[in-house]
Specification:
Layout lengths: L1 E5 L3 H12 L4 E5 L10 E4 L7 H8 L7 E2 L4 E2 L4 E2 L4 E2 L4 E2 L4 E2 L4 E2 L4 E2 L4 E2 L4 E2 L4 E2 L4 E2 L4 E2 L4 E2 L4 E2 L4 E2 L4 E2 L1
Parallel strand pairs: 1-2, 1-3, 4-7, 5-8, 6-9, 7-10, 8-11, 9-12, 10-13, 11-14, 12-15, 13-16, 14-17, 15-18, 16-19, 17-20
Bound molecules: coenzyme A (COA).
The site of coenzyme A (COA) has 11 residues, from loops.
Length: 165
């Protein structure tokens, strides 16, 4: 199996070393500004606010593979879409639904019944309280807090440490 990590930054490198160590097969990294190599599966490691959306547009119709770090917890009743990365110590709780190609950052918490649409980025330590819906391409900064039951339109940016209520 050949996996192509799309992106060349630190988080792409992090994915590269992790997936290589897991010996899933051949793992390559590719710059999204260049032609992507042929691979069985693709996964985005692009976490920069400015480039996430265009990278998602580039890969969304390809075969995507998700990855959940060993120390993360994904509840049995939750679901994680193709191409999504759930980082170390993140929690995806009861009946939460995570879309395609999301990045659930280290230590972030998605609590019960949340719906996180495609290509949403959660920076480290962000907390999404119960039954919240986050529209696609949204970007939630580090340690942000989103109150229960909110609906965030697509492309919403919540800056680091902000409270969205
Ligand atoms: C969301 C974020 C990542 C966007 O990054 P960016 O495009 O480089 O944005 P900037 O830091 O240049 O900020 C953009 C605007 O938001 C404003 N802003 C940034 N943080 C803010 C905050 N906590 N509260 C209110 N406004 C804020 C900036 O003042 C700036 O306003 P301006 O355009 O009028 O000058 C960034 O604003 C942020 O929240 N960073 C926190 C750290 C983080 O989560 N990093 C993510 C990877 S771990």
């Amino acid at each position: 199996m050949k996996i192509c990590i799309v992106g060349t930054g630190t988080n792409s490198e992090k994915l590269f070393y992790t997936l290589e160590k897991k010996a899933y097969g051949e793992v390559v990294m590719s710059d999204p500004r260049e032609e992507l190599p042929m691979a069985d599966y693709y996964i985005s490691g692009v976490t920069n606010f400015k480039y996430r959306k265009e990278t998602y547009e580039l890969i969304k119709d390809l075969d995507l593979i998700s990855y959940v770090y060993d120390s993360a917890f994904v509840c049995d009743s939750a679901s994680v879409g193709d191409g999504t990365v759930v980082c170390s110590n993140a929690i995806v709780d009861f009946r939460a639904t995570i879309g395609k190609s999301c990045w659930i950052g280290p230590g972030s918490i998605v609590t019960h019944n949340c719906v996180i649409e495609d290509n949403v980025f959660l920076a480290p330590g962000s907390t999404i309280c119960g039954s919240t819906k986050i529209g696609c391409n949204s970007y939630i900064g580090a340690n942000a807090l989103v109150y229960d039951g909110m609906t965030l339109p697509k492309g919403t940016v919540v800056h680091g440490g902000q409270v969205y209520r």
